[in-house]
Design brief:
Chain B: Pfam families: 2Fe-2S_thioredx. The complex is a heterodimer. Chain A is an alpha/beta fold. Chain A has five domains: 34-136, Glutaredoxin; 161-371, 3-Layer(aba) Sandwich (Rossmann fold), CATH 3.40.50; 381-464, Ubiquitin-like (UB roll); 469-556, NADH-ubiquinone oxidoreductase 51kDa subunit, iron-sulphur binding domain (de novo design (two linked rop proteins), Up-down Bundle), CATH 1.20.1440.230; 571-626, Alpha-Beta Plaits (2-Layer Sandwich), CATH 3.30.70.20. In chain A, 39% of the residues lie in helices and 14% in strands. Chain B has a four-stranded mixed beta sheet, with helices on one face. Chain B is α+β, with helices and mostly antiparallel strands. Chain B has two domains: 6-71; 83-162, Glutaredoxin, CATH 3.40.30.10. Classes of the chains: A alpha/beta, B alpha+beta.
Chain lengths: 628, 164
């Protein structure tokens, strides 16, 4: 139990000694608390690719070599380089090993831990360095990033509150309770220029203020952790890697607006995050950082986790609140706004996970520090989840205003297999595509909106020439049709009609008139749908129509899919010059549509062909061509 | 008379569990969704009898309970297979060919998305992003995660489970 700020500070000093070995060694030259710390990413992608088995193997190796006193293994949050997982880092020298298998652990111990020699084959990034040195900044993936929201991810053990406290955790809460009146907290957040990281980019300080001014003894703060945007996983990583930063921010939020109860609404698809949050809340309660009379300052605040149940629309504020109330997660018309009548018709503030993760540092380091980062209207950093056809798939956090080119090429390492960049999709089903001509646009809320996309929660999916933009638009409409809650007709019926047209086009049955119809429908839905989900559902169609109209025209006029994705428009043909008449394709064909023998040239009967592509796969001489 | 029926014993065990769950949440505001989650943990799905029990226990009309169950994709009114296959259809997985993987599962198991094989061994679902985009395309079978797959890997994966 921490009774006051002095006790918090005393705990911080004690806890810091245990982790100095992990911090920059030039600043902390005398590590205590174990000579070597091995950090293993224990969340998201790495856990899925077996990092927990690696951690277990390290434990075994420590025991086997009797190194218990000198070597410690810590399961941390995300380092960001998810495609290279499982990832581990050895401190104090900060050497990062990637794609580590349990079988590699013995070698790491023998050569690195005990022999002082780097295992070069497992190194991240440049492999030629042999010397043990602080090499992380040399990897471009890390050099260009600025970590605020992900600050503690990959450094601390998320299931140990002491480690969070060691790195200034709960100091912002102490500062607020000690020095600030509630309205001063709101002023500080307003001055920082922080905007909501979940989608719309509404100024956070103003949101808090609009709830704070309503007089009511019962108010709520909610953390929106219903990260439904496919391809975005930064909220998952923050919750799994640094859950206390969100908890601390929510208590501050409660103090600022006068709420004593908070809810974290998490997707049920994130079981690890749910578990970590549970552990973190319990620890904070045990320390008296949640509950009554927090830090002896007379402020009470409690926190509860609520699980989603797989409905994308629940990411929308009012739908989320309806879901917490135990009902179908349908949005409601506004006004009244949630700040006045939200959860159980009481004033409610709802913020996204990443937004919250910024708050403690804004309080600690000041609004001026935060608003010195970023662009004129978008302050601070943004976490992007890089995915799709890009080399360094993972999480990156960059200052607002970083260009798409820097993100895709310098940090993301470019397109794999010599592919060409075709477009980047941001904002998920609510966003749009940015074509190559906009690679040099500095990315912030306003520039993306101007280009017909949106920041969304920060999913950034890169596509190369093998992605069909019409098919992609259809894919997103598939998603919205499926996820539409059905309450308002423009979304329920309108997206369905759009989807039908897109299916028609991808099946080669579209007409030029269909393109006009799509645009009319899209504009009408945007103007009339009840909630953000419906209003933004047409964005993927509008933006692909804007930047890739030629591809739509190829589908409807020439009946061709330039990317070779839309099955009904694919044509397989046998190149008779290359064909050796071996007959392998004929044997393998499931519809027996290939004719020919030793004396007659082989040919495909297009009417019978189901375009399964088996013949092309089987042909040893590469004589079968697609869309030639 | 004592019953030796293993199925009955199991059923009454589950019914007891359900009663406990309902009692635990009786005074919680907005209890329905947490109760449904935990009930589904116990039963594997939410048959009508279970929904009726919850409706009585929480004093919420059955129509409303059913309305909530059918609204959320995580709740199922059909039993799931012993091995629940989930093919991630998030954007990152989709642009890396997850639809081909899903098709392969469909043909190999001869079932459609949302269905269960006749022997109750496998059920197949397409799910939303599970946040493992670094491993795209991703498939989960119960708690096991398979990443960076191609359609060719499907046979090997299923063979592993067929033998179990």
């Amino acid at each position: 139990m921490i009774k006051n700020i002095e006790e918090l500070n005393a705990l911080k000093d004690r806890a810091l000694g245990n982790i100095t070995v992990r911090l920059d060694r030039t600043e902390n030259p005398s590590p205590e608390g174990g000579k070597i710390h091995i950090l293993v990413c224990g969340v998201a992608g790495c856990a899925s690719s077996g990092s927990l088995k690696v951690a277990a193997a390290i434990e075994d190796e420590i025991k086997k070599n009797n190194l218990g006193a000198d070597v410690k293994v810590i399961k941390t949050g995300c380092f960001g380089l998810c495609a290279e997982g499982p990832i581990m880092m050895i401190c104090p020298e900060h050497v990062m090993y990637t794609k580590v298998a349990p079988e590699d652990v013995a070698e790491i111990f023998e050569n690195h831990i005990m022999g002082g020699k780097i295992v070069t084959r497992l190194l991240a990034g440049e492999k030629e360095y042999e010397e043990i040195e602080d090499r992380l900044p040399q990897i471009p993936f890390f050099a260009m990033q600025k970590r605020i929201a992900l600050n503690n991810c990959g450094i601390i053990d998320p299931e140990n509150i002491d480690e969070y406290i060691a790195l200034d955790g709960y100091q912002a809460l102490a500062k607020v309770l000690n020095e600030y009146e509630p309205d001063e907290v709101i002023d500080e957040i307003k001055k920082s220029g922080l905007r909501g990281r979940g989608g719309g980019g509404f100024p956070t300080g103003r949101k808090w203020e609009s709830s704070a001014v309503v007089q009511d003894h019962e108010k709520y703060v909610i953390c929106n952790a219903d990260e439904g945007d496919p391809g975005a996983f930064m909220d998952r990583s923050i919750l799994e890697g640094d859950p206390h930063s969100v908890i601390e921010a929510m208590i501050i939020n409660g103090y600022a607006v006068g709420a004593r109860q908070g809810y974290i609404y998490v997707r049920a698809e994130y079981p690890v995050a749910v578990k970590r949050l549970g552990v973190a809340i319990r620890q904070a309660e045990e320390y008296g950082l949640l509950g009554n009379n927090i830090l002896g300052k007379g402020f009470n605040f409690n926190l509860e986790v609520r699980l989603g149940a797989g409905a994308f629309v629940c990411g929308e504020g009012s739908a989320l609140m309806t879901s917490i109330e135990g009902k179908r997660g349908e949005p409601r018309p506004k006004p009244p706004r949630s700040a006045e009548k939200g959860l159980w018709k009481k004033p409610t503030v709802l913020n996204n996970v990443e937004t919250y993760a910024n708050i403690p540092q804004i309080i600690r380091k000041g609004a001026d520090w935060f608003n010195s980062i970023g662009t004129e209207k978008s302050k601070g950093t943004k976490v992007f989840a890089l995915g799709g056809k890009i080399n360094n798939i993972g999480l990156v956090e960059v200052p607002m205003g970083t260009t798409l080119r820097q993100i895709v090429y310098d940090i993301g390492g470019g397109i794999p297999d010599g592919g060409t960049f075709k477009a980047a999709q941001t904002g998920g089903p609510s966003g749009g595509c940015l074509p190559a001509e906009h690679l040099d646009t500095p990315i912030d809320y306003d520039s993306l909106t101007k280009l017909g996309s949106m920041m969304g929660s920060g999913g950034l999916i890169v596509m190369d020439e093998h992605t069909c933009m019409v098919d992609l638009a259809r894919f997103f409409l598939d998603f919205t049709v499926d996820e539409s809650c059905g309450k308002c007709p423009p979304c329920r019926i309108g997206t369905k009609r759009m989807h039908e047209i897109l299916v028609r086009i991808t099946e080669g049955k579209g007409t030029l008139e269909d393109l006009d119809k799509l645009e009319v429908l899209a504009r009408n839905i945007k103007a009339s749908a009840l909630c953000g989900l419906g209003q933004s559902a047409p964005n993927p169609v509008l933006s692909t129509l804007k930047y890739f109209r030629d591809e739509y025209i190829a589908h409807v006029v020439d009946k061709k899919c330039p990317a070779g994705v839309c099955v009904s428009m694919i044509k397989y043909k046998i190149d008779t010059d290359v064909c050796k008449r071996c007959g392998i394709c004929k044997k393998g064909c499931p519809t027996q549509c290939i004719s020919g023998d030793k004396n007659t040239p082989f040919a495909i009967d297009q009417d019978k062909c189901v375009k399964c592509g088996l013949c092309m796969e089987k042909c040893p001489f590469k004589a079968i061509l697609k869309n030639a | 008379m004592t019953t030796n029926c293993a199925g009955c014993a199991e059923a009454s065990e589950k019914a007891k569990e359900l009663k406990k769950i309902i009692a635990k949440y009786k005074d919680t505001r907005g209890a329905l969704i947490p109760v449904l989650h935990e009930a589904q943990e116990v039963y594997g799905y939410l048959p009508l009898e279970v929904q009726r029990e919850i409706s009585l226990g929480l004093d919420i009309p059955l129509a409303e309970v059913y309305g909530v169950v059918s609204f959320y994709t995580q709740f199922s009114i059909n039993p799931k297979g012993k091995y629940q296959i989930n093919v991630c259809m998030g954007t990152a997985c989709y642009v890396k060919g997850s639809n081909e993987i899903l098709d392969k599962f469909k043909t190999r198991l001869s079932i459609d998305v949302g269905d269960c094989t006749d022997d109750q061994k496998f059920s197949l679902d397409a799910c939303r992003c599970i946040g493992a985009c670094g491993l795209a395309p991703v498939v989960t079978i119960n708690d096991e995660v398979y990443g960076k797959l191609t359609a060719d890997d499907v046979d090997d994966i299923l063979d592993k489970y067929e033998d179990k």
